[in-house]
Specification:
11 strands; alpha/beta; D-Maltodextrin-Binding Protein, domain 2; six-stranded mixed sheet; single chain; five-stranded mixed sheet; 13 helices; 299 residues
Length: 299
């Protein structure tokens, strides 16, 4: 190549840091960026990392960008990572989702499981309590030791607390055994703590309970489902407003389409949404935001 040719090439394709890692002159600079996403750690952390690693691979193939799953230590850390822009996508529960979107102007709920508009929680009790399954709220739980999930969980705290108040006319700390009411941190821990008798009873995401029964991790004759709540909206994929700026106009819509098109049974099982994924919007979760404000749980 002669000197003039080299000069023309350098004029047409400036050597900048951004383009030095692109695949070619004029290549898509967004391909060099990484889309990072998180998920609330509502189950065993090691299992979640393996499951969401598969989702990262799927999204990377569909969108043509680097995608990385970022584990977080707890629900609050997931929201903080989203608020700080450390992750641009998150699988939130209903409560963490409304908190994150309230803190980040322009954030959007873009997808949810087909089951999420009508989600529910299971109240469970150790068989030794003698509390039987019922279609009515089990008043036999009064005075029992009790485990919620995370303090920021929709299905493990917000909605169960709401129903306890509605059905008993009492705050949970008054209805259950006072100081022996606690927060386990995640749904699977709640089930195991009730099964081994550490707590008389607890409440958790129905999907986690059903999965643990199917996998033989808990015995439904010992950790007994005694009541299920009425339905409410819950989990969602929430997108950060920086996505279109980082990856190009229309990227958020492409991401939404990729999530909705996730039909591989192994992937859907990984996120416990075997029934499939559908579109979502912020308006779908407005009732949860109102309830969270009423119970002073938006902080």
């Amino acid at each position: 190549m002669n000197t003039l040719s080299r000069r023309l090439l350098l004029t047409a394709c400036p050597v900048t840091l951004a383009l030095s890692i692109a695949t070619s002159c004029g290549g898509d600079a967004s391909a060099s960026k990484t889309l990072r996403f998180a998920a609330i750690p509502d189950q065993n952390a090691t299992e979640l990392e393996e499951k969401y690693g598969r989702v990262a691979d799927y999204l990377s193939d569909e969108l043509g960008v680097n995608v990385e799953f970022v584990p977080t230590s707890d629900y609050t850390a997931s929201v903080e990572a989203f608020k700080n822009g450390d992750v641009q996508l998150a699988w939130f529960g209903g409560l963490t989702g409304v908190r994150a979107r309230a803190a980040v102007s322009g954030a959007k709920a873009i997808a949810q499981g087909k089951v999420d508009p009508t989600f529910k929680s299971y109240f469970v009790a150790n068989a030794s309590t003698g509390i039987a399954p019922s279609s009515e709220f089990p008043m036999g739980l009064k005075g029992k030791t009790f485990a919620f999930g995370s303090e920021s969980s929709t299905s493990g705290r917000l909605m169960p607390e709401y129903y306890v108040r509605e059905e008993t006319g009492m705050a949970p700390a008054d209805f259950f055994a006072g100081e022996q009411m606690n927060f386990s941190g995640d749904h699977s821990k709640t089930a195991l703590l009730v099964q081994d008798g550490t707590y008389d009873a607890g409440v958790l995401n129905y999907k986690v309970y059903d999965s643990m029964v199917a996998d033989g991790k808990i015995d439904p004759a010992v950790c007994v489902k005694v009541w299920e709540t009425p339905p409410y909206p819950d989990y969602n994929w929430t997108a950060h407003p920086s996505l279109d700026e980082d990856f190009g106009a229309g990227f958020t819509e492409r991401l939404q389409a990729a999530l909705v098109a996730m039909t591989d049974p192994a992937l859907l099982k990984a996120v416990q949404r075997d029934e499939g994924i559908i579109k979502a919007s912020n308006a779908d979760f407005a009732p949860l935001e109102g309830l969270a404000r009423e119970l002073d749980l938006m902080r």
